[in-house]
Design goal:
single chain, 279 residues, alpha/beta, 7-stranded mixed β-sheet, two-stranded antiparallel sheet, 11 helices, 45% helix
């Protein structure tokens, strides 16, 4: 598999995206479970069928572009909304980025690392759960060992690392719509349906002198690269109650998703029972 990744890493981005779109539609056609979930989640959010179907190809592109992003030459990326980052850092704040399963979320951390994070003390730390497959674990670890980018394990030590980074004025990246293990979240509405939501995002947002921003990586057509959009969160300060805080964060994620619903992963199992919970 490593050889296959290296083979695809030299392909032009437009070709990888074309292949990914084909694979995305193949999975959609061949998997009734995935198809029903994707369409049901999009309908729940009031998203048009056209945007829901657009996400089929975008999901495939997300997978196909990984070899190029991890092992290949740089791709064009523009950071839009950098003034929000600069203002937070000028005030001496740590910056907490919330990114949903939308567009190329691999690119959000990289864009910050390349354009903002190489200043001393301002690297971005991302929470990282290593893949189970040994070959993939080595690839991912190598891809994320970059100047301005650090990783923290999904352990208590990793959480302490994130808090330390924020308190020092550095940046932290998190996917708050990722379903956590049982005991690490609360049930809060997401597009009107209860979804098990991590409380870690709310706890980090309440770290003193922390600015919360939203970020997502828009995938441009025809392999032209990416635009990473950075926006104010609009949900802070968060309530101290965990359910209310997670509800506010989910509402912010909803607004971001609806700004470009065709690039959200509607097939993601957002409403699944957390690991360790009852079936």
């Amino acid at each position: 598999m490593t050889v296959l990744f290296r083979f695809f890493s030299v392909w032009p981005l437009w070709a990888l995206h074309a292949l990914g779109a084909l694979l995305g539609w193949l999975v959609f056609v061949l998997s009734p479970t995935y198809r029903r979930r994707l369409l049901a989640h999009a309908a729940l959010a009031g998203v048009s069928r056209a945007d829901a179907l657009r996400s089929v190809a975008e999901t495939g592109k997300m997978v196909a572009e990984l070899p190029r992003l991890w092992l290949g030459a740089q791709v064009p990326v523009r950071l839009q909304g950098r003034e929000h980052i600069d203002a937070a850092q000028a005030a001496g704040h740590g910056v907490l980025f919330f990114t949903p399963h939308m567009g190329c979320f691999e690119m959000t951390a990289r864009a910050y690392a390349e354009q903002c994070g190489q200043v001393a003390g301002r690297a971005m730390t991302v929470l990282f759960r290593p893949p189970r497959q040994a070959w993939l674990r080595a690839l991912v670890a190598g891809a994320r060992q970059r100047p301005g980018l650090e990783t923290a394990p999904t352990t208590l030590a990793g959480v302490k690392q994130l808090v330390k980074a924020l308190r020092s004025g550095a940046a932290v990246g998190l996917l708050p719509d990722q379903v956590p293990p049982e005991g690490q979240g609360v049930w809060a509405p997401f597009f009107g349906r209860p979804a098990y939501t991590m409380t870690l995002s709310a706890r980090l947002a309440q770290t003193p002198r922390t600015t919360v921003l939203l970020a997502w990586g828009e995938r441009l057509s025809w392999g032209r690269g990416y635009v990473v959009h950075v926006l104010p969160c609009g949900a802070t300060p968060l309530p101290t109650d965990p359910v209310q805080a997670c509800t506010a964060i989910n509402a912010a994620m909803e607004r971001l998703v609806l700004s470009c619903p065709g690039q959200y992963l509607w097939g993601y199992g957002r409403y699944k029972t957390p690991r360790g919970g009852a079936d």
